[in-house]
Amino acid sequence: GGGETSVRVERMFGLMDRFLKSDPSSLQKDILDHVEYTVARSRFSFDDFEAYQALAHSVRDRLIERWHDTQIHFKKKDPKRIYFLSLEFLMGRSLSNSVINLGIRDQYADALKELGFEFEVLAEQEGDAALGNGGLARLSACQMDSLATMDYPAWGYGLRYQYGLFRQVILDGYQHEQPDYWLNFGNPWEIERVHVTYPVKFYGTVEDENFNGGKRKVWLPGEMVEAVAYDNPIPGHGTRNTITLRLWAAKPSDQIDMESFNTGDYINAVVNRQRAETISSVLYPDDRSYQGKELRLKQQYFFVSASLQDIIRRFKDSHSNFDDFPEKVALQLNDTHPSLAIAEVMRVLVDEEHLDWNRAWGIVCKIFSFTTHTVLPEGLEKVPVDLLESLLPRHLQIIYDINFDYIEELKKKIGLDYDRLSRMSIVEDGAVKSIRMANLAIVCSHTVNGVSRVHSELLKTRVFKDFYELWPHKFDYKTNGVTQRRWIVVSNPSLSALISKWLGTEAWIRDVDLLAGLQEQAANVDLHEEWRMVRKVNKMRLAEYIEAMSGIKVSVNAMFDVQIKRIHEYKRQLLNILGIIHRYDCIKNMEKSDRTKVVPRVCIIGGKAAPGYEIAKKIIKLCNAVAEKINNDPDVGDLLKLVFIPDYNVSVAELVIPGADLSQHISTAGHEASGTGNMKFLMNGCLLLATEDGSTVEIIEEIGEDNMFLFGAKMHEVPALRVKGPTLKVPLQFASVVRMVRDGYFGFQDYFESLCDKVEGGNDFYLLGYDFQSYLEAQAAADKAFVDQEKWTRMSILSTAGSGRFSSDRTIEEYAEKTWGIEPCKCPF
Ligand code: CBF
């Protein structure tokens, strides 16, 4: 048995000897072996991509070793585990992150050098794993890194989409979408677990069946597909702990369709089976609205059902009583997308494990926590009842039953206030009867977290006010964070080395509060010089990229001003572009002799628009049209350049963020739940030009408003300003830049008309006109500060020094202690 095997294994290898060695010659041998036996190329002839593949497999071997040890350790200790359910994980590249976390990057770099390869060049061969849309998905990835580093017994569960987020191609300035078939060249970072599979069922009917002298419900499904696990080991930094991100792929099940095979329609039977795979085929590219699509709901249930079967199987391996479930299991709902898990746990406990309803409900109420990431009403999912009834008939019954009990309880507490009861109901009666997934999640979770303090305030006072008044104790927030391992150490190695040198330690990589130690050096001239040098080298790297990608030459002496994020009206890329038009117009109209006073700028914008989001696509086109005009205007030269970076993704962010002097986070106050880009720029010593929105409010508290450029209407002013709408006074400059667009100064007059209509004539919902004046003032303040390089450098150092609070390590620690009730479980040696 297993016990004997492990004794034999221990005898064969001394405990430590079994670990793969990481000295350069062992690494070289491993890489060459992988070239020969895994990649199947001759060790005397292989190119950069093949070298990358071999290198990745050699790193993967080391990951697997640690990962096995971690899983064995968790099994032995049986701690309470956190299961992080998320439909999206935006992991980006894995190679550099893995070797840095394993502490063997330099060894690999040396080993490769002797073989004639550069580590950096090979790292560039890796494509991004883009299984997510934006902030929410990258947050999940950052949190996995922190969970591993801090030794928490955690599992991430999600979907292994065959097509990740679409690739953005810009043709004639317009966005075109191309499929991202990211698995084309294989994926060395995952391990296919052909034996870890679960059946997932859909459709069918629910029947009553006699049971123990009473009745019980039995779901007779009409379709079954198989979920196959793909495990992605996630290494912690400075620890042996390596946790699992388990992503599910859909495969046809052997158990269906026997009928059609037997009736002889072999070809059609095979073709029908292939349809099962579509469930995990494509990521929905809209992070804004949920359109009640059947495939989306199928994806949600598919990953929830497979994950819960896996979690319950693991629990049952060492426990027989479900009352212990809440002691061992915490389930995190990352937004509403996995909230069907609530009905699924009830179904499994009642229908399959035969617990009575109340006992099952008692368990459910203790295990779920829910984090919401939006304030926009269109971001709150509603599932049409008809759709749910056809796809998951038993789940709909369970949701109705939960709602019935809950509304009865509610009536006792709030009386027969029918308006409020109907607002708080899980079921929405309207033209299309729907299930409100957020209400389901709130009712059934013990904690509802926002992602920043002001977001939480908005949830309590507006979005979920009724619920807050009923259950104030449920509402909390954990301000988002990002991992400094990815966003400083991996993406900005020279800054990382500089920080370690000046702090005299690398300990900040795991204990980021130590960055505060830079504060006392913020005026040190030697540090200033080195800091500026590092920043300049990063700007040169970015300038090279810009030239290679767009042919535009930019001067590194100019201020690099960046806005990279999804394109949304509320994020106000349009405000940025209109500001650039104003700057352009000023330069054009000024005396030649005055142009020497202009602070040169390179404005960089990047981001994807959801394929069906017309206005966002027009914003991209406008940006490119304005860029075309400005960049080819000899009057302007190096004083102003505008670059649209296509196909913004994690690896592009890793290049752009370290090279930015100024970054813009300019959403209309009250619209960005948190924002995490601001934190990444902050860590890298980039100054922020921002509105007081989302997590920026907390950044201000950490670094002080003198160290950034703030502008715009405050959150509490926005509702009243909207009411005033058409009567608001808008500055002349605003009217004049919009007129330039309307009059076709940048071409495409008809195409841009609807865009201009969105911000004029009383339609300016996001208050671009109202905020324009103060935006220009903030930009002028940034120019002024940039001229004084000593001041700028001090502000930059203080930004990095004040970024400690925005590490995902802090966020995860708060979740672990306050929401999930879990403890670290560190793998020995
Ligand atoms: O919480 C992470 C991020 O999530 C979003 O991107 C989202 O998808 N809802 C929000 O828009 C961000 O504000 C937030 O930082």
UniProtKB/TrEMBL annotation:
It comes from the Eukaryota. Its EC number is 2.4.1.1. It catalyses: [(1->4)-alpha-D-glucosyl](n) + phosphate = [(1->4)-alpha-D-glucosyl](n-1) + alpha-D-glucose 1-phosphate. It is an enzyme of class 2 (transferase). Its cofactor is pyridoxal 5'-phosphate. One of its GO terms (biological process) is glycogen catabolic process. One of its GO terms (molecular function) is pyridoxal phosphate binding. Keywords: Allosteric enzyme, Carbohydrate metabolism, Glycosyltransferase, Pyridoxal phosphate, Transferase. One of its GO terms (cellular component) is cytoplasm. Belongs to the glycogen phosphorylase family. Allosteric enzyme that catalyzes the rate-limiting step in glycogen catabolism, the phosphorolytic cleavage of glycogen to produce glucose-1-phosphate, and plays a central role in maintaining cellular and organismal glucose homeostasis. This is Alpha-1,4 glucan phosphorylase. It comes from Salix udensis. The lineage of its organism: Eukaryota, Viridiplantae, Streptophyta, Embryophyta, Tracheophyta. The chain holds residues 190 to 1018 of 1018 of the full protein.
